[in-house]
Prior knowledge:
- The chain has five helices and three strands; from the N terminus they run ααβααββα.
- With 104 residues, it is α+β, with helices and mostly antiparallel strands.
Amino acid sequence: MGAVKHDVFQAIADPTRRAMLQLLANKNLPISEITAHFPISRTAIVKHLHILSEAQLVQGTKVGREKIYQLHPEPLVEVKDWLSFYEQFWSNKLALLKYQMEKD
């Protein structure tokens, strides 16, 4: 059986992985620094980074003895595009609410 590949939606479903993406948005970091920000084991961090890598949201580059991770936000466009369809419903509800409030 082949390895399971994770898509961007699966990758961002976990709050720890979302926090990692935010962390990497500020600067590229080695695993040791990423681990320092979370109350979980290095092994768990590596697993999360693996899922983010499979979704092509982060890339790890070997620098000496360390692996430095950097954010690749491009796949998040898929999430943005998916959500943009639902904006019509939010906009309609807000417009209706505004109308109701002004009417009263």
